[in-house]
Design goal:
Elements: E1 3-7, H1 15-23, E2 29-32, H2 35-42, E3 48-51, H3 58-64, E4 69-72, H4 80-90, E5 95-99, H5 106-118, E6 124-129, E7 132-144, E8 150-154, E9 161-165, E10 172-175, E11 183-187, E12 192-207, H6 208-213
Parallel strand pairs: 1-2, 1-5, 2-3, 3-4, 5-6
Antiparallel strand pairs: 6-7, 7-12, 8-11, 8-12, 9-10, 9-12
């Protein structure tokens, strides 16, 4: 898979996160609009800066004008994160880590999580926020885990059914409709957790620091 990092204009990640992701093969950096300001502060040079440019500082764009590919897209029917995802997909990237996609403005966080779901059929987008890693899954999957890892599972409707093997609290062909039922803070009891997600998709949130420690990113 062709990998990249997408840096949005939310809570800034630590620079150590970029170093870790670089080692895992995520060596291309997209910045969504004001995410370029974060890159500048962290001493990072984006490969692409994309957005309508209503939030990025002009001085930042000026600084990167001969260092990065800067693409202004003025349309307002998609977000800057979506603009980046569309361009990344267009040039062959299909494995994206979203950083700065969450923060102190809940509507932006919620919208970005929606985009992760919206584009999941064509692009594998994972979100890192502090100690957590979120990804979209469907079908039969196997998660390589460390026994004791906290794993939370969130469905979206009653049609989607879940069966698990390797979790402390097993899922036995049940649904996890959003706002009604969830599997929060479940625990891995084996090195492999098997999930069957039928008739839909789910958000699965795992422990980023633990996955990083054991090279499971």
């Amino acid at each position: 898979m062709k990998k990249c990092i997408l840096l949005a204009n939310g809570q800034a990640p630590k620079k150590s996160v970029f170093r870790l992701l670089n080692k895992a093969g995520y060596n291309t950096l997209f910045c969504a609009d004001g995410g370029a300001d974060t890159a500048y502060k962290l001493g990072l040079v984006p490969n692409f800066i994309i957005g309508d440019f209503d939030s990025v500082n002009y001085s930042t764009l000026k600084y990167f004008e001969n260092k990065s590919s800067i693409i202004q897209i003025k349309r307002q029917n998609d977000t800057d994160v979506e603009k980046c995802l569309k361009h990344a997909g267009k040039i062959g990237f299909n494995d994206v880590i979203l950083l700065g996609g969450t923060g102190d403005r809940l509507h932006h966080s919620f919208c970005n999580l929606g985009s992760v779901l919206k584009y999941s059929d064509s692009i594998n987008v994972k979100v890192i926020h502090d100690k957590s890693l979120l990804a979209v899954y469907s079908g039969n999957i196997i998660l390589t885990t460390i026994p004791g890892e906290t794993i939370s599972i969130y469905g979206f409707d009653s049609k989607t059914k879940f069966i698990s093997n390797g979790l402390k609290y097993p899922l036995k062909n049940i649904s996890l409709p959003f706002g009604q039922k969830e599997s929060t803070s479940n625990v891995a009891i084996k090195n492999k957790v098997k999930l069957n997600i039928k008739n839909g998709k789910a958000f699965i949130i795992r422990e980023f620091e633990l996955l990083s420690k054991y090279g499971l990113i």
